[in-house]
Amino acid sequence: MVDTPVGDLLLDGLWLMGIGLGVVFSFLLILVAILVLMSRAVARWGPAEPLAQSLTATAPVPGADPVPGAGHARVIAAITAAIHAYRRRHAA
Amino acid sequence: MVDTPVGDLLLDGLWLMGIGLGVVFSFLLILVAILVLMSRAVARWGPAEPLAQSLTATAPVPGADPVPGAGHARVIAAITAAIHAYRRRHAA
Amino acid sequence: MVDTPVGDLLLDGLWLMGIGLGVVFSFLLILVAILVLMSRAVARWGPAEPLAQSLTATAPVPGADPVPGAGHARVIAAITAAIHAYRRRHAA
Amino acid sequence: MESALTLWQSTGIANLTWRELLMLLVGCGLIYLAIAKRFEPLLLLPIGFGAILCNIPLAGIGGPDGMLGMIYAVGIETGIFPLLIFLGVGALTDFSALIARPSTLVLGAAAQFGIFATLLGALALNLVPGFDFSLSDAAAIAIIGGADGPTAIFLASRLAPDLLGAIAVAAYSYMALVPIIQPPIMRALTTKAERGIVMEQLRPVSRLERILFPLMLLLLCAMLLPAAAPLIGMLTLGNLLRESGVVDRLSRSAQNEIINVVTILLGLAIGSKLSGELFLTTQTLGILILGAFAFAIGTGAGVLMGKIMSRLTGRKVNPLIGAAGVSAVPMAARVVNKVGLEENHHNFLLMHAMGPNVAGVIGSAVAAGVLIALVTP
Amino acid sequence: MESALTLWQSTGIANLTWRELLMLLVGCGLIYLAIAKRFEPLLLLPIGFGAILCNIPLAGIGGPDGMLGMIYAVGIETGIFPLLIFLGVGALTDFSALIARPSTLVLGAAAQFGIFATLLGALALNLVPGFDFSLSDAAAIAIIGGADGPTAIFLASRLAPDLLGAIAVAAYSYMALVPIIQPPIMRALTTKAERGIVMEQLRPVSRLERILFPLMLLLLCAMLLPAAAPLIGMLTLGNLLRESGVVDRLSRSAQNEIINVVTILLGLAIGSKLSGELFLTTQTLGILILGAFAFAIGTGAGVLMGKIMSRLTGRKVNPLIGAAGVSAVPMAARVVNKVGLEENHHNFLLMHAMGPNVAGVIGSAVAAGVLIALVTP
Amino acid sequence: MESALTLWQSTGIANLTWRELLMLLVGCGLIYLAIAKRFEPLLLLPIGFGAILCNIPLAGIGGPDGMLGMIYAVGIETGIFPLLIFLGVGALTDFSALIARPSTLVLGAAAQFGIFATLLGALALNLVPGFDFSLSDAAAIAIIGGADGPTAIFLASRLAPDLLGAIAVAAYSYMALVPIIQPPIMRALTTKAERGIVMEQLRPVSRLERILFPLMLLLLCAMLLPAAAPLIGMLTLGNLLRESGVVDRLSRSAQNEIINVVTILLGLAIGSKLSGELFLTTQTLGILILGAFAFAIGTGAGVLMGKIMSRLTGRKVNPLIGAAGVSAVPMAARVVNKVGLEENHHNFLLMHAMGPNVAGVIGSAVAAGVLIALVTP
Ligand code: NA
Ligand code: NA
Ligand code: NA
Hints:
The complex is a heterohexamer, with three copies of chain A (92 residues) and three copies of chain D (377 residues).
Chain A: H1 6-45, H2 51-55, H3 66-91
Chain D: H1 2-9, H2 18-36, H3 41-53, H4 67-76, H5 80-92, H6 96-100, H7 105-110, H8 113-124, H9 135-142, H10 149-159, H11 164-176, H12 178-189, H13 192-195, H14 207-224, H15 229-244, H16 248-271, H17 276-279, H18 282-312, H19 331-343, H20 350-374
The structure holds sodium ion (3 copies).
The site of one sodium ion has 9 residues of chain F, from α19.
C-alpha cells in the first residue's frame, strides 16, 4: 500500500469519501424514517402514558429492581418533605 | 457415549439418580446434624449476645470498617430527625 | 546460588545492605531537598490560595466533574437546611 | 458497479440466513419478556441482547475474535463468572431462617428429585427420533431442575457447552415462570387444612451461629464432595464476608460491583451460545420441555416431603414451604407466601419458606457436584 | 568501583535518551492541560501519566511484560475497553431530543464530512516529503473528525495501532478545544438573523419510544452495516439498560463502575503507545494539523447543513445546532447554546442541540463501520 | 460394590493428607484471627479462606485449571493486583503531613534498616541445618520488614513465588500485631522526657503542593531508580487522581471499586500459595521468626533516628514518631499517638506521625526497587 503513487491513493480516498458519506447519509436518513414511523405507531397503538412520567427521561418504573434505587428515592422524598416543612414554616 | 443403546444409558441414569439423591440427602442430613450440634454448642459455650443485635441479620460490628457505611448512617439519622421535626410540627 | 557457601552469601548480603540503605537514604534525602525547594517555589510564585480551602485535603475544585458529587452535595445541603429548621424551631 | 456489488455484499441483509433472522426474533422476544413481562430482567435482557449481537451477519461478535466470544472464553469457559455470581449470592443471602430450623434442609434435598428425574427424562427422550442426548448432555439439562442460574451455567459450561445457551434461557425463563408453574401443583398435592397450617415463629439466630454456618458448610463439602467445592466455596465465602461484620467494604463489593458487572458480561456471553446452529434444533425443544418437567417434578417432590414432615412433626410444618425447596430465590418463597395467604389472610409463610428456599440453593450445588464427579463430558 | 558503575548504569539518568526526556515533558504537559486547563481531564490525565510511565528508562512498563503493555494487549488490542466505554456512554445518554426531532440526524450525518475530508487531506499530505500515510493510516487519522474518543480509539487500534497514541491525544485535545475552535466558524457561516432563530419546544417522548429506539438502531445497523455492530451494539445496549427501567442495577453499573475503571486503564494503556519512537515523528505533527482541520471542516459542514434545513423548514431550525453534529458530547451542544445566547439572551438552544449532538455519536460510529468494512489494514 | 468404592474414593476424607488437614486448620486459624481478633481482616479473611479452598483434596482449586490458580496467574504473576492496590492506597493517602515537614522522610528511610538487617538474618539462618535461602529468597523475606502488604506481595511474586504465601501471611499478621510489637521497643529506647516532647503544629499545605508532590516523586524515581517505577508510579497516580480535584470519579473508583474487588481476588489468590508442600516447611518457621525480627529492628532504627533528629533540632521532634517510619499505615501512627498520650494526655502525635508513616511506604517501595534491580531470581 505504501508504494502506491499518491495519485492512486487520492483516487481511492475519493471513492471512499463518496461511498462513506453515501452510507452515512443513507443510514441516518433511513433511521429518520424509522423513527418517524415508530413515533406514529407508538402514538396510535402504544399504551397511554401519564405525561408527567414521560417527560422525565429517567423515571424509574415502579416496582422494578427496587433494591438500591428505592432507598435513594425514599431519601429524596424524606428530604423533600423536610424542605417543604422548612419553607412553609418560613413562609408562615 | 453417543453409540450406547438407550437402554444402557437409562440404566446409567438410574444409577446416577440413586447415587445422586443418596449423596444429596446424606449431605444435607449430615448438615442438619452439624447445625443442630453447632447451635447447641453456641447456646452453651458461645458469648452472651444482646438479643436486639442478633435479631437483625446485618447488624454491623461497631468499630469495624466504618468508612463508607458511617456517612450513610449519619445521613439517615439526619433525615430521621428532620422527619420527626416535620411530623411533630404537623401533629401539633 | 544455592551452592554458594554461606560466607559468600553473607558478604553479598552486606554489600546489598550497604548499597540498599545508601540508595534509600540518598533517594529520600534528595526528595527532602526537592520538597523544600518546591514548597518555597510555590510560596513565592504559586497562586494565592484561600487558606480555608488548602486546609482541607480533599477540597473539591468547584465546577470539576460535577456529575455524581453534585447530587450528593445537594442532598447534604438539603439535610443541613432541614436540620437547621429543626434546631431553630426547638430553640424557639 | 463492481464496487456497488461489494458494498451490497457487505450489508447484513445480503447475508442474512433464516436461522439468523429467527435468532434475532428470539433475542427480541427475550428482551420483550424481560422488559414487558419482568421475566428475570437482570439476566434475560443481557442474554437476549447477546443473542441479537451474535446473530448479526458477518460481524462475528460471538466468534473467537469477537467481543462476546472473548468474554465467553475468559469468563464462562473458565467458570469464573458463575462462581463470582455465586460469591455475590452468598453475600446477599441471609441463612438465618435455615439455621433456626435446620430440618428444612430436607425439603431442599427433596426438591432436587426434579434434577434426577429430568436426567432420566432426557435419556428417555433418546427413544424419540431426532434426539440424541449423551449422559453429560442429560446431566447438564437436568440441572435446570435445580432452579439456580449460576449453578446451571457452571455445570453446563463443563458438561455440555453447546447446549449452554438453551439451558440458560430455559433456566431463567422457568425461574420467572415460577409463580405460574408452582401454584397449581401446590394446590393439587395439599389439602385445604394443610395449606392453612400456621407455623411457629423462628427463634433469633446469634451472630456467632451465622459466622460458623458458612465455615461448617464449606468443611462438610470439603470432606464429602470436593467436586462441589468451587460452587459451595464461593457461596460460603460471600456469606462469610457478609456475616463476619469486619469486612463490610468487601461484602458490599461482592453484593454490588462484582455481581452487577459480571451479570452484564455473563448475560452477553451466554448470547454467544445462542447462534442459530446451536439453538434452532430439536434439542432445544427437548430442553424447553424437560425444563418445565424439571420444575414441576421438583415442586411436587418438595411439597410431598413437606407433607411427610408435617405428619412427622404433628402438623407443625406447612407442607407448602416444601415448594420453595427448588431454589429460585426469593421467587419461590414469595409464591409459597401468596398461596398460603389465599387460605388464611394472617398466615405469613415467607420467613418459613426462606429456609427451604436457601436450602434448595445448597441442594442444587451439591447435586451439581455429584454430576461433575460422576459424569465425564 | 565496578559495583558503583553497575549501580550508576541502573539509574534512569544514565540511560535517558532525548526522546524519552521529551516524552516525559509531553506527559507532564498533558497533565498540566488536564488539571490547570480542564482539557478532558478524565482521559488526558491518565494518558499523560501513562506517557510518563512508559518513557521511564529501563523500566519497560509499556513493553510486552510491563503493566501498561499488558493492559494494552488485554483491553485495547481486543477492542474491549473502547466498547465498554461506549456501553457506559449509552447508559449515560438520553436520546429523547433526537427521538422528538429525528430530522436532526441529518445534521449528525453532515458533520461527518469532516472525517472524509480529513481522509483526503491525510492522503494529500503524502505529497509533502516526510509523510507516508497508507490508506488505513489515513482512515484512522480521519476518525479524529468524528470527535468521539472511544470510536477513534477503537478504529485506530484496528487500522493503525502505531498511530493510536497520537490519534487519541489529538482527539481528546481537540474535543477540549471545541469552545475555541467552533465559535468563529459558526459565526462566519451564519447571519445574525439566523443565529437568533428561536426553535419550538420539543415534544415529550414516551417511555416506549425510548425503549424502542436503541433496538431499532441496532437492527438497522445489523441489516445495513454489520461492521459498525460492535460500536452501535454496545451503545444501544447501554441505552437499553438505562431506558428499560427494569435493570437499574446494571444501568448504574455501566454508568459508574465500568466506565470509571475502564477509563483509568484505557488512559494508561494509551500511554503505552506514547513512546518516543512512535510519537516524536513528523507523522504526529501531521496528525495534529489534520485533527484541527477535521474539527473545523466537520463544524462547517454541520452548520451549512443547518442552514439548508433552516431554509427548507421556513426558518424553524437555528443553523447553529448543526455545529453540534460533530459529537463532542456535551461540549459542542453547550457551545451552541452559548453562541446562541450571545444573540438573544432568552434563546436557550441546549436541548435543541442535543439532538444533533447525539446524532453525531451515531454518525461517527457509522462512519467508523464504513471504514472498517472498506479499508483493510 | 465397585461403584460404592468409586464414590468413597471421590470424597475428601478418603484423600485427605495430614498436610491438607493442617492447612485447613491454618486457614481456619487465619479466619479466626481476622474475625475475632481483627487482625487485618480485609486481607487475612480472604487469605485464610483461600488457604481452605486450595487445600480441599481433589478439587484442585489452587491448581493451574482451578479458579484460584487462574486468578493467581492473571493477577499476581503479572504483578497487576498489588499495583492496583497501590493505586488505591495512593488515592486514599493524604501526604500533607509529609509535605509540611519533609525532614520526616529520613525517619521513613531509617526504618527500612529492618529490611536489610533481616536480609542478613535470613542469609545467616542458612548456618542452621534445614534452612537453605538463596539471595532472592532472603530479599523476598526481608521485605516483610517494610511493613507494607502490596510491596511485599509484589516483590515476593518476582523473587520467590514459592515463599509468597508465607511472606504475605507473615507481613499482614505482623502489621496487625504492630500495637503489641512496637510499644515495648519504643519505651525501651526513649526517655520519659523524650516521649513527652510536644511538637509544633503542622503548617497548612496548599493544593498546588499536593498536586506537585506525586509528580516530583515519580520523576525522581524515574531518574534514580527505574526499578521502583511500577510501585511508585501506581502510588503517585492514585495520589494525583485524588489531589488533582478534576477527576473525582476516577479517584473514588480507585479508592473503592478497584481496591475492594482486587483485595478479595488478591487474598484468595495468595491462598493458592498456601498448599501444604509450600507452607508446612521449616522455611515458613524461619520466615515467621525473621518477620518479627524485621518489625522489631525497623521500629528500633526508626526510633533511634528519631532521637538523632530530636537532638539535632533542639528537641523539636518527639522520637516516638520514628517508630511510624516502618509504614503499617495507619496502625503505626496510631500506636505512636497512644504511647505519646501515656506520657502526656494532651500530646496528640497522630498528625506528626503520619509524615514518617507515609514516608515509610515510599521508603519500602524504594527498598523493593533496589532489591529488584540488584537481585536476580
Ligand atoms: Na435448587
Ligand atoms: Na461524531
Ligand atoms: Na515501609
